[in-house]
Amino acid sequence: MAPRYTPGRMYLRLQRDGDALDAELSGEWRGANLPAIDAEIAAHSFAGARSLKVTVPDTVTLDLAGAWRLREWLKAAEAAGLNIQFDGPPPGQLELIDHTLAGKVRPTPPSSSESAFEPVSALGKQVTRRVQAVKLALDFIGRACVAFGRACTSWRRLRPASIARHVYETGITAIPIVSLIAFLITLIIAYIAAQQARAYGAEIFVVDIVTVGVLRELGVLLTAIIVAGRSGSAFAAEIGAMKLNEEVDALHAIGVEPHEVLIVPRVIGLVIAMPLLAVIADGIGLTGGALLCKWLLDMPLVLYLERVQDAIAPTTFWVGIIKAPVFGLLIALSGTYRGLQVRDSSRELGRLTTVAVVQSIFLVIFANAIFAIAFWQLDI
Asked: What b/e string do you get for 238-265 counting C-beta neighbours within 10 Å, with b at 16 or more?
């Protein structure tokens, strides 16, 4: 019998081979698309069929509303006497619905302490966990990139109001603490440099140390560490609390992509805020250096400014500023990724919030080392 596949179907492709039906899902099985999905389902019948093979590719988006409609269709096929099989594992949403309707609780995974006295088994499990963690991280980055691409296609999806709110919360409100830390750290560095340079009569070079150090490294690096502890932890805690309250699952259920709503505005907001904070930290740091040189070395402000201009190369300022959006991106991705990993308890929320901060600081320092090597190779 000729196959009944009709080109142009968006959600369900059905082929008949004798008494066997092959069904392949496609597109987005979301609540918003249920009328079109129902129309396609109604166009097919199970008459004369004895088996149904269902394929759900990874490219198919399936929320709870779409999964519920797929389950009803499969139940109708089963009631018609068809033997149903999946090509690969069935979607997890079907299992979730079945478990919820049956009132079952997912079994608790065995504790890792069971393999404490089995070194080879424990090593294998650790390697498996690390590999799985890398896969999950790459999956998160991929989903975030896709969500960012979708957001760039529509002004409404980009959510400028949410981005502006995150620029205010991560940037404007952080100005006092960033300014204070930049001022104090610069005072300390200038004081140490002045004590050492005075012994050789080279006090004038204190200005060079402060200027180049603040503009190239300290300004942006201090800002990134403060933002990692402040905004990175806030991202992880906010999204983690939403996970505990099942608000993220609710977004899935109503057909809203959480990465587009929760990740993209935070990442864009922090990428915008970081260069602004770095510029402020640079200005405050140079001001602190001027005050210490005036107080400790009795250096006139005019001489300090002239020496600052001599010490700055054309690329000195931009070498520091170009790192700022990269650091902001790493901090935002780390915080939101750990927030989405929260499961089950507030203790897990606290642990992953701490992990987000530590990981953000590590990534910032690691990226700064890569920048240093790259600038050295480029002779900048």
From this structure: bbbebbbeeebeebbbebbbbbbbbbbb
Taking the C-alpha atoms of residue 181 and residue 250, their distance in angstroms, rounded to an integer, is: 41
Secondary-structure breakdown of the chain: helix, strand, coil percentages, each rounded to the nearest 5: 70, 5, 20
Taking only the tens place, the pLDDT of each residue in 84-116 is 888 888 888 888 888 787 766 555 555 555 555
54 DSSP β-pair partners: 23, 86
Element (H, E) at 84: strand 83-86
Cα–Cα distance for residue pair 64/75, rounded to 1 Å: 16
- Helix, strand or coil for residue 111? coil
Cβ atoms of residues 331 and 270 within 8 Å: yes
Residue 155 neighbours by CB distance under 10 Å:
9
Q: Is the pLDDT of residue 20 over 90?
A: no
Backbone angles phi, psi at 379, to 5 degrees: 60, 45
Confidence at 4, pLDDT banded by 50, 70, 90: very low
Which run of H or E residues covers position 38?
helix 34-42
* Burial of 71 (C-beta count, 10 Å sphere; 0-12/13-18/19+): middle
Give the global pTM.
0.68
Cα–Cα dist 185/320, whole Å:
17
Angstrom distance (rounded) from CA 178 to CA 280: 8
